[in-house]
Design brief:
By secondary structure, the chain is an alpha+beta fold. The chain is built from 3 helices and 4 strands, in the order βαβαββα.
């Protein structure tokens, strides 16, 4: 553990998240900075905008993100992880069978899938 990370050793930090992101974030923070993470999932972060675009963000992704606000040390900590190593993929499909093949190839149901119209003029099905 580095000297800087010792600021958070044995401190309780509330992680406001939804959609089970704590499964990845919690063990990393606890290991790397020595804190105890308390997960708060009652706050509906989807109100700030959704990845699937059903609720549009009013600000950029970074401007919307909930960051580590350290009132004791008067710090705002923001982290970003970027990698080309991802399973992100997409298709434009006209047939249900194409969607099934795609979903199977990306590991559904272990990996979630977002299905949405390609634009606001697409047909809506009941």
């Amino acid at each position: 553990m580095s000297e800087k990370s010792s600021l958070y050793k044995d401190r309780k930090i509330v992680l406001v998240t939804k959609h089970k992101k704590e499964a990845i974030i919690k063990p990393l923070l606890e290991k790397e900075i020595g804190c105890q993470i308390i997960v708060e999932s009652e706050f509906d972060t989807d109100r700030l905008g959704t990845f699937s675009r059903e609720i549009k963000r009013k600000k950029s992704q970074e401007g919307t993100a909930l960051v580590l606000l350290d009132k004791r040390n008067k710090l705002v900590v923001n982290g970003v992880y970027e990698s080309a190593d991802t399973n992100y993929n997409h298709i434009l499909a006209d047939h249900y069978d194409d969607v099934l093949v795609f979903a199977k190839n990306i590991g559904f149901p272990e990996h979630h899938v977002i299905i949405r119209p390609d634009n606001n003029k697409s047909k809506k099905y009941n």
